[in-house]
Records
---
Amino acid sequence: MKKGIIFFAIFIVSFFGYSQSNNVVSVAVDQMNILYVGVDNPITIAVSGVAAADINVSVDMGTIRYVKPGHYIIRIKAAGTGIAKISVSSGKQLFGIKSFRCKRLPAPIAFVGNNPKNRKGGTISKSTLLALRGVNARIENFDFDVKFNIASCTVTIMDNGKELAANSTSGKFTVKQKELIKNAKIGSKVIISNIKAKGPDGTDRKLNSIIFKLK
């Protein structure tokens, strides 16, 4: 579900284990029985014999937003981990309660530029590195397009035992950091470290360092 909310061939996870009626209640999510903290989790709910527009849904560890009949967005609060319970009812009749695991987002990978491919380290020219402008972070192989804000990064130039460093309070290279890269000799190592990021779940993350060799 990248670049927006897409309800695609969502599979039925399970039936509610608890019900006060003979109606069959099912829940479908795009992640196997998991709700992630701080992001929009699409969920589809159906009750046999009950019109989708007549179903009421609530969650005890976050908020739920109606999208269209049968489709909702659940957002688990930043402090939430453990188990979230989703209740499905209509009027005064409770059809069932289903529990889902709540997890924090996986750790993202830091890279330089806007495309993580081949930008996590290795050999690079000064002109290419400067053109990439700074550091970003992304969770690899994840169904959600999650934005992380880089809070800091340090650029260190290693040349024949000499070490020059400059800090940034964002992911964007500062003028001083660019000057260090620009003046570095071919063969020098450029180490981008102290990379810290914050995601939509409110968690501060210390990310991997990136090491380049200038060519």
---
Amino acid sequence: MKRLTLIRHAKSSWDESGLADFERPLNERGKRDAPEMGRRLAAIDASPDLMLASTAKRARSTAKRIASEIGYPKVEIVFEQLFYGATAGEMFDAIRRLKSELSEVIIVSHNPGITDLNNTLCDTHIDNIPTCGVVRLELPVSGWDATEPGCARMVDFDYPKRKHPAAPSSD
């Protein structure tokens, strides 16, 4: 069994009109949401063997903030140009090339590719993974090269605006 977590980058800023899309930073909401989603992943014991992310500034920032919360070393995040503007097919091919010994992988990327990738991998269709949305999938394969369209099962779909029950009080 393999686990794959798909994350859309957190909310980015459009404040600087002349700034290239690739260089857009996170806005204040994105800076809040990424650590929150990281804490939610930590609460369910996410422990990736590999974290891959787009090289775009907003995706790099999202990945680093989430890594800090789940205890993944930021220096070990692999930033791949491929994941900036990648189609679902390009990301799917990258997944099939992952080393078999990796059990759990996180990918931080962009829409529409990340949503389309989810819809390629599993039969639980999502119209749109919102910014900083997290989809956790289980793939019943022994090696990533055996990944096929529709083979995954969605085990969780979370996003910043989704309401979570309050933590139990310590009274």
---
Amino acid sequence: MLADLLHPARITTSLRASDRDGVLRALANLFTAADPKLDGQGVYDALLKREMLASTGVGHGVALPHGRVGGLAAPQAAIAIHPSGVPFRAVDGQPVRIFVGILGPEDEPGAHLQTLAQVSKALRDADVRERLLTAKDADQVLTICGAAPKAAS
């Protein structure tokens, strides 16, 4: 479940980047906000290295920038939603509004690929994408991604 990979500090519903580099830097910042042991430049470099091979813009307004880094015990995800979209060389040529960054442990390529497949499958659902685009905050994103609702206090 996508929610299991997330942390509220790794979610923004108001991404302000205007290009690919800005998006990748914003995702790296989200990852390091939740885990200060991660090296922000190393995360950015891992995401950029993969992006240089081919765009991770999968279409329908979604991109899945990803990479593997040392020091992770398990895969992690970050979500950044842009209000109007960013040119990202997506396969359908459309601007991307939903960015799901995925980091996997450097020494576990199989787990990384499995995580990518699960996230990609979840985002094929048009209803999920639409709900993410209207989410107001991290709690709403977590609920949409499958987190159990918080108990009322």
